[in-house]
Amino acid sequence: MRLRKERLIAGQVWDTVFTNRIVPYLGLFVGLLITYAAYSGWVSFRQQNQLRAAYQQQARQDWLSNPDKHPHRMAHYGHFVFRPKAPLSMFDGGMESFLGSTLFLEAHKQNSVNFSEAGFSTGLLRFGEISLAMILQLLLPLLIFFVGFSSVASERDNGTLKIVLSQGVSGQALLVGKSLGLIGVMSTLFIPVMLATVALWLIAQSGSVTLDEAIRLGLLIVAYFVYLTFFCLIAVLVSARSRSAKAALVTLIGLWLMLTLVLPRASQALGATLFAAPSKVAFFDKVGEDVHKEGNSHNPNDPHYKALKDSLLAAYRVDSVQQLPFNYSGFVMAEGEKISATIYNQHFDELLTIYDQQNEFSRAVAFLDPFMAIRNLSMALSGTDYANYLDFGQQAEQYRYDMAQKLNALQMKYVSNYKPGPGDPPITIDNKHWEEIPEFHYTKMSVRSVLANEPISLFALAFWAFVLLYLVHHQSKNLRVV
Fold it and tell me: Where do transmembrane segments lie in this chain (predicted)?
């Protein structure tokens, strides 16, 4: 029967692990962490989404309840939009706590997303939050190394490795069997984590699951199983190459520290140094400087808008703006909005280029560190990475621009060019027009778009699979018995 020897060896690994008196206590500890992570993830998701939905509804009601008012005043009154939490954010919080959730939209100005949890927390948040993803990314690989360091090295220490190989067990069968045994042990913790994720995921969506969300979850399960399998293979390979079990344990702990702590931090710091981004203050100062160079829509003597006025008067063959068939101030505001939005987008694209360079550098490290690959892919599929945050900001900016231009159009259509006298009432339009501004609805990225942003992570996982399988094959032919 095929793989009979491998299954016997895998069973021996299973028995050895679970007869260790420490393992049940470790399992209990991890089980408590899984329970806490699942509970805290669910509570955070439910509370945050309820709050954001309530505030979004309140912002809409506040907008519609405004009295009759000048359209430009409404443009400066502005509107709030809130970024909803994705269902899988319960599994992997990613950058959710650092990116903010609320954006104020107003005319002539692009604001940044505010009110992140990190802004209201202590510096301890930088060490990360306990989540189901964190348990799989950091803790479970360490446990795999702890139970797998002696898988082959102890056989060499006890002198039984020579006996096993002399009885017809090939080096490849031995390493494959040891790896399968560790994968089985790993699955006893991996499966409960994913079952908890699936249960919470279904509850969050009230059982109404879309194909896109199902694909995301399926890819997450496969990706994490592959990632943890890598650590099972690494544990067996290091154990097979080490002269003693003690040396294997020291090597594996060093590898864990390097892969999960040192390399990720170092790559981020180096990327930020190589591709330095301007500060928030410097960015907005540069935008404001270029907008003023192009023209100030609130300054009637500005050269750009003076030339614009002269061209309009000539085109309509009138002597003053009061004779134009539309409100001139509204036209000027629309032109100013177009100019400021264009300049902002140009500078923002340049900033995004720098951030993309930083992120691509960090992603490239995944070919040296599988932790980087699974972390980036996990956040992307969970909807908690930078790309999802950026997508929300871009949709909100488009909504802001459309809102401002719609109000400018209302001003051009309904507001007279003649200014009211000292005793005249202020110029307003009926508040029924506020309903013409549609409510903001965020459309989340499709899983296809998510995967298009993470080709390096996918290739890195494939690269690691190829390298580790090759190393297992190579090591099986060069297995030392002493």
Answer: 22-42, 130-152, 180-203, 215-238, 244-263, 450-472
